[in-house]
Design a protein that fits this description.
The chain is α+β, with helices and mostly antiparallel strands. The chain has a single domain, classed as Alpha-Beta Plaits, CATH 3.30.70.100. The protein contains three helices and four strands. The longest helix has 17 residues. The chain is globular. The termini are close together.
Length: about 120
């Protein structure tokens, strides 16, 4: 079964194009190191919650949009090796490809796929 890294972030709405460029550049690096697919989604129907929600989870401000993204890997071993190489690659370093959002509010994690149709 494949393995997925998932991400949720709050991005300043004015930075949409900068984020798209940032994500596209990073996606090429992830694919080079073994990712099967990289998907970046710009929120357009993200309701505020009463107990929990995407906006609450990332402490979204009024001038920000929630982004939901995932990377599909063949398996956990390829992901672990690939992610090490990605993090060491100069093309994704902050001085080369700065994050156009507050990385401290980024939520991420790795997930073992248990159903895939």
């Amino acid at each position: 079964m494949s393995y997925v890294d998932g991400f949720v972030a709050a991005v300043p709405t004015a930075n949409r194009e900068a984020y798209r460029q940032h994500a596209a550049a990073a996606a090429a690096v992830f694919k080079e190191y073994g990712a099967l697919k990289v998907v970046e989604c710009w929120g357009d129907d993200i309701p505020d919650g009463k107990v929990t929600s995407f906006p609450m989870a990332v402490k979204r401000a009024n001038d920000e949009t929630v982004v939901f993204a995932w990377i599909v890997w063949p398996n956990r071993a390829v992901r672990d090796e690939g992610m090490q190489k990605v993090m060491a690659d100069p093309r994704v370093q902050p001085d080369t490809n700065p994050m156009p959002f507050d990385g401290e509010r980024l939520i991420y994690g790795g997930f073992e796929v248990i159903v895939e149709r």
